[in-house]
From TrEMBL:
Keywords: Transferase. This is GNAT family N-acetyltransferase. Pfam families: Acetyltransf_1. The lineage of its organism: Bacteria, Bacillati, Bacillota, Bacilli, Bacillales. One of its GO terms (molecular function) is acyltransferase activity, transferring groups other than amino-acyl groups. Gene3D superfamilies: 3.40.630.30. It comes from Jeotgalibacillus proteolyticus. It comes from the Bacteria.
Length: 329
């Protein structure tokens, strides 16, 4: 019998052998895999089992990532309706043992921007196997997705395993973010009258202010204006037809929740209660018109003035998260 090493598994790096002229491995799209990894690559899953696994892991701070929630129905809905430019089965790798998912890693890939938000690793492997299993999932996901670009990780400060794993891969920490939440009846409403619904006469000032305050953010001013509809609203504060600030909110009546996506106040207008007024208007809209049972807002941990304002109005701190970026080309 002749048995020789002729390569390594793309995913777990185990040696692959050729025995009596027979290659003991599988080849997929030009890469070689051991039988175990090849099986993982083919593993099938339903949206329901994936959604329920993700929310189970995501509901604990030590497994939490910032991109998805903790309600199974809502996560299932996102996976089905609003996830990745690639097919869902090409955007997730699941690891099953005894028919149950024990780990999963996915990416919400944006083909135009060539960026991906990493969902996971959601990983219930033992302490010793955690990093190894995460690496295997990562290499399998990269093989499946087959794209180069920028990958983002958004991990809870207490999710030490994932933060450590992504740093070892080469992920650079870019910022710390704070997520604050508010419940109905907890937000003041003293100065709502100082605000109004956005109208096109503020368009130029709005575009300039958004570009100046959020130069590299996920929605440009034009994207906000095109996303604006009966649920997603833009409110402004103005004086003599001059824009002092704006707040953009997205409401999700199906899941009774909403988020304050962007809030900005002109530098000249700071200290006059404009931010508080906008925040109150946004909250009142989400609680009353969307029937939100919870509102969230994400802010840079460095922005102590904003955090102070949100707390003063009635928000409380829920999570601290680290934002990472990894380039693969
Ligand atoms: Zn392998």
């Amino acid at each position: 019998m002749v048995r020789e090493v002729i390569g390594q598994c793309t995913s777990c790096r185990r040696d692959l052998f050729c025995r009596d002229g027979f290659f003991e491995a599988e080849i997929d799209n030009g890469n070689s895999f051991c039988y175990a990894c090849f099986k993982l690559l083919q593993e099938e899953f339903t949206v329901r089992e994936l959604g329920s696994f993700i929310t189970q892991v995501n509901s604990k701070p030590e497994g939490h990532i910032g991109y998805c929630g903790v309600e199974a129905m809502e996560v299932e809905n996102t996976l089905q309706e609003d996830f990745s430019d690639l097919k869902l089965e090409d955007s997730f790798i699941v690891w099953k043992e005894g028919g149950r998912i024990i780990a999963a890693l996915g990416v919400d890939w944006d083909s135009e921007e060539r960026t991906g938000e990493l969902w996971g690793p959601f990983n219930l492997s033992s302490e010793e196997k955690w990093q190894l299993h995460a690496d295997i999932l990562w290499r399998l996901l990269q093989h499946k997705v087959n794209q180069e670009g920028t990958w983002y990780g958004f991990y809870n400060e207490l999710n030490h395993q994932a933060k450590n794993w992504f740093s070892v891969l080469g992920g650079q920490k870019k910022s710390s973010e704070v997520i604050l939440h508010a419940k109905p009846g907890k937000v003041s409403s003293r100065s709502i009258g100082k605000t109004e619904e956005y109208s096109d006469r503020y368009q130029d000032e709005f575009k300039r202010m958004h570009q100046a305050v959020f130069p590299n953010t996920y929605y440009s001013a034009d994207e906000i204006l095109s996303r604006k509809n009966s649920k997603n609203r833009l409110f402004v504060s103005a004086e003599n037809n001059h824009l002092l600030g704006y707040v953009y909110v997205e409401g999700n009546p199906d899941f009774k929740e909403g988020s304050i996506e962007f809030i900005a106040v002109d530098e000249q207008a700071r200290g006059k209660g404009v931010g508080a007024a906008l925040l109150e208007r946004a909250s009142a809209y989400l609680f009353e018109c969307v029937d939100a049972q919870e509102i969230s807002i994400c802010v840079s941990a460095d922005n102590e003035a904003a955090i102070h304002l949100y707390k003063k109005v009635g928000f409380t701190e829920k999570h601290r998260l680290s934002f990472y970026k990894l380039q693969t080309n």
